[in-house]
Design goal:
The chain is of the alpha/beta class and 221 residues long. The chain is built from 6 helices and 10 strands. A hairpin with a 2-residue loop joins strand 9 and strand 10. It starts with a strand and ends with a strand. It binds adenosine-5'-triphosphate. The site of adenosine-5'-triphosphate has 11 residues, from helix 1.
């Protein structure tokens, strides 16, 4: 498997496991939904994957590299994992192109421009690149957040409730956009949601999380 999540236990407070022996594998290019009620541990699992939290037990590898185990810990900024949050977290004082280029500090000016143009094309916002986040619709901001996360070419993308601020019609449209973009990039992606329709519409597989345990895995055909 491209990504292996093996028996992850996590607790914020002692003797109160929020994740309990969570295991799954993810293929390259696969989209996996984590579906669960509020408090089931979805965000925590994403935080552990991104390196913002350290598990008590368990191991995570990506493309053969151990990210965390009882002897290893790779810092979040070295993991090559992109993350998109519910509120998009775009920088309000930066325009679209600057937001997209934010994670490309180490690249040359020419490379930054090339990547940003590719990303703008991917999210179909070519003509709006000098606009600021507040001048965009929720759906457009969502696409910019996605482009910003994809620009550094991560190995995996994590999305935490990416559609929750969008109305029903826009949600449907953005789900299709996301699916197209992920497929085009052959990107492995895990997204947390409490909405079955979101999961059913775009995921290859759905993991049901209840009280920090994966209680069911459904292949989406
Ligand atoms: N920083 C923290 N300190 C202590 N407990 C926490 C912390 N963050 C989350 N928790 C607890 O861990 C459990 C899982 O929370 P988590 O945010 O992962 O759930 P979730 O499924 O993402 O919920 P939601 O859909 O509401 O975002 C909850 O019981 C929550 O109260």
């Amino acid at each position: 498997m491209y990504i292996d999540i093996n028996k992850i236990d996590f607790e914020y407070d002692k003797n109160n496991l929020v994740l309990c022996s969570c295991s799954t594998g993810i293929e390259q290019g696969e989209i996996v939904a984590i579906l669960g009620k509020s408090g089931s541990g979805k965000s925590t699992l994403l935080r552990v994957l991104s390196g913002l939290e350290i598990p008590k037990n368990g191991e995570i590898t990506i493309d053969g590299e151990i990210l965390v185990s009882n002897r290893h810990f790779v810092e979040p900024n070295k993991r090559k994992i992109g993350m998109v949050f519910q509120d998009y977290a775009l920088f309000p004082h930066l325009n679209i192109i600057q937001n997209i280029q934010y994670g490309l500090m180490k690249k040359s000016k020419e490379e930054k421009e090339k990547i940003a143009l590719e990303m703008l094309k991917l999210i179909s916002l070519n003509e709006k690149y000098t606009k600021y986040p507040h001048e965009l619709s929720g759906g457009q901001q969502q696409r910019v957040a996605l482009a910003r996360a994809l620009a550094p070419n991560p190995k995996m993308l994590l999305l935490d409730e990416p559609f929750s601020n969008l109305d029903k019609d826009l949600r449907k449209q953005i789900r299709q956009d996301l699916k197209r973009i992920m497929n085009q990039q052959n990107m492995s992606c895990i997204f947390a949601t409490h909405d079955y329709e979101d999961a059913k519409d775009i995921a290859n597989r759905i993991l049901y999380l209840e009280d920090g345990k994966i209680v069911k895995i459904e292949k989406n055909v």
